[in-house]
Amino acid sequence: KAGVTQTPRYLIKTRGQQVTLSCSPISGHRSVSWYQQTPGQGLQFLFEYFSETQRNKGNFPGRFSGRQFSNSRSEMNVSTLELGDSALYLCASSVGQVNSPLHFGNGTRLTVT
Amino acid sequence: GENVEQHPSTLSVQEGDSAVIKCTYSDSASNYFPWYKQELGKRPQLIIDIRSNVGEKKDQRIAVTLNKTAKHFSLHITETQPEDSAVYFCAPQGGGYQKVTFGIGTKLQVIP
After folding, report:
1. B22-79 pLDDT per residue, tens
2. Measured between alpha carbons, how far is B90 from B102 in angstroms, rounded to an integer?
3. Looking at residue A2, what is its pLDDT?
4. Interchain contact, B44 vs A45, CB within 8 Å
5. C-beta atoms of A31 and B49 within 8 A
6. Residues of B with CB under 8 A from a CB of A
7. What is the least distance, in Å, from the CA of B38 to any CA of chain A?
8. What's the pLDDT tens digit per position in B1-25?
9. Do residue A55 and residue B98 have CB atoms under 8 angstroms apart?
10. Contacts of B4 (CB under 8 A, 6+ apart)
């Protein structure tokens, strides 16, 4: 099985712009969750989607949003970028049952200048 | 929400020694306890997990032990090797679907 695929791998944006990141889960996985990873804060949960519905949301401002398509692929959007949004954004897929392990993609490295 | 504390934040051991990383959580509903390993520049990967009906699980040189009463679980690595050098994260789960709180991570350095 192919693993979790995230595109693009790297992005450089300017403050105030918006960005869209993409995640294709492992075939058969219906849950996709997103995490922000920074050196000081570790891995922080953004949101989780299952069958096109957002089931959980972390403590991030409304500038961070996401969606999931009928084929389970997911996108994450960040509007009005700030310098502090520079981070590695990881998505993870799972079968979506309670307490199932996460399978991570390689991440998208976002740099905001 | 779940409060997760992981100790130590950094750990240096000589090759061949053992390493232990502890994770303390607050949500008594947690019933799934995985550990993830993230090598430099790579994705986090599940290395071992345990469910609440089991007290210990072992897979070759790694093991996880669980104390549900005290709300902590630990990762044990024996006979450490340089390739064990990485950041290790605990991520206790339970209650809500996939709203996972990760520990801050432990950077393990194995000195040859």
Report:
1. 999 998 888 899 999 999 999 999 999 998 878 999 999 999 999 999 999 999 999 9
2. 6
3. 84
4. no
5. no
6. 31-32, 34, 36, 42-46, 49, 51, 89, 91, 93-94, 96-105
7. 10
8. 679 999 999 999 999 999 999 999 9
9. yes
10. B23, B24, B25, B26, B90, B91, B92, B101, B102, B103
